[in-house]
Amino acid sequence: MEHANGEFLTIKRVLTGGRFWDSRTIKWDHFNRSTTTELSGLKLKDLKANNYLFQAIDRSILETILSKDTSKQILDSMKKKYQGSSRVKRSQLQALMRDFETLQMKDGESDTEYCAKTMGISNKMRFHDEKMDDTIIVKKIIHSLSSKYDYVVCSIEESKDIKAFSLDELQSSLLVHKQKMR
To answer: Are residues 42 and 56 part of one domain?
Structure first.
């Protein structure tokens, strides 16, 4: 599901960059047939937008939108499928919140991998309009590291103001700890 949301944003960026994003609002039935050159130009622009869309979309998704005639129909279909209704979004956010709350560093997992996993979940939550302050993420990482980081956590909590401690500083402290352990 999150892959499809990323695809939709990529598609929007490609179309915006190619100046095709505005063509999604074309309604062919409302044009006066006397302006055939303008109409031809707009149809060409819409066909180019469709071409960009078909190139950017995964083959399995492409099968479901081949029946759409205009770039607007394709984009509306993609929005409906992958951005979902508010109930679906709320459900996805609840699942992400549960994942975030239960997240613990596993034995054998590196601090870099764990920070990346935590940031991935928090970024998905932000994508779903959850207000996720960096302080919350720092606290989560600090309190869910494996026991081999206990003295690093203790040192950080004693010497730093956690509310002002950034994710970059945390990752730097963990990197220094890893280098000292070698």
So the answer is: yes
Is there a single domain that holds both residue 28 and residue 57?
yes
Helices (H), the chain: 2-17, 36-56, 59-65, 71-82, 86-102, 111-127, 134-143, 150-159, 167-181
Domain count, the chain: 2
- Indicate whether 19 and 74 sit together in one domain: yes
Which residues, 6 or more positions from 145, have their beta carbon under 8 angstroms from its beta carbon? 105, 111, 114, 152, 153
Where a domain ends, among 32, 67, 82? 82
Q: Residue 177 belongs to what domain range?
A: 86-181
Joined together, the tokens standing for residue 181 give 């352990």
User: What DSSP character marks residue 101?
Assistant: H
Which of 24-28, 44-48, 103-107 is predicted least confidently? 24-28
Tens digits of residue pLDDT in 47-95: 787 777 667 666 767 677 777 777 788 778 777 776 666 777 888 899 9
Contact 139, 162 (CB under 8 A): yes
Under DSSP, is residue 21 helix (H, G, I), strand (E, B) or coil?
A: helix
Torsion sign across C-alpha atoms 118, 124, 125, 130: positive
